């Protein structure tokens, strides 16, 4: 784990529902794997049942993420993956219940949670941790959001949730207020009480993220009492003009947000980096 990845897992490994925001190429999958394994290890120590599901929005990601888990798990935990063309019915249910970690598309999980056939059905309490890749999709009628609504309404034990994203869904908002509203909506949809971002190791993060090839940058603003630090952290399609869409939030019940993202043209509006 790189130092900035250790920052991203701090709240999740303490059992808090967390959204982790970091740029593409920074190793968010490794963050998810670390949280999943820490969760399973702790539940085993506490003699509590555990099962982790990692949800991915596209079918090709199922096999990709399953293989990444296999690389780190090394046989300690049973990992399987499912998508729309996988096994059906009770065979799939039995395999899921035999797994320690399962990677699947959200629609598969929704279908199994809603199934009227007892031999096909899963329950929310069958999982102790759900990890949502590209969690910025958790809005409106996306399967992520429908799934979270089911979890909010569920009366039994609820799983811990963790979301991973590079954007927080604020890239296209018109102003700062809309950006903050989008973040709070996402956190509410996910039931998240923590927004994890890189604050102490921004310089190390900048060494690992992909470098742009067209002069368009996504910047990460990290706020603290002493001021703000700006770090180039990834490529964006041409935006047209520099626009900060999120600022430091004060006096909010979800906790002090210390990360702000804005898009801009590096060629025409170079920010001061420090």
Description of the structure:
The chain is α/β, with parallel strands linked by helices and 274 residues long. The chain has one domain: P-loop containing nucleotide triphosphate hydrolases (Rossmann fold), CATH 3.40.50. The chain is 33% helix and 20% strand. The chain has eight helices and eleven strands. The strands form two sheets. A seven-stranded parallel beta sheet has the order 3-4-2-5-6-1-7, with helices on both faces. Strands 9-8-11-10 form a four-stranded antiparallel beta sheet, covered by helices on one side.
Write the layout of secondary structure elements.
Elements: H1 3-9, E1 18-21, H2 28-45, E2 52-55, H3 60-73, E3 79-82, H4 89-98, E4 101-104, H5 106-114, E5 129-132, H6 143-153, E6 160-165, H7 176-190, E7 194-196, H8 202-208, E8 216-224, E9 227-235, E10 243-244, E11 259-265
Parallel strand pairs: 1-6, 1-7, 2-4, 2-5, 3-4, 5-6
Antiparallel strand pairs: 8-9, 8-11, 10-11
Helix pairs in contact: 1-2, 2-3, 5-6
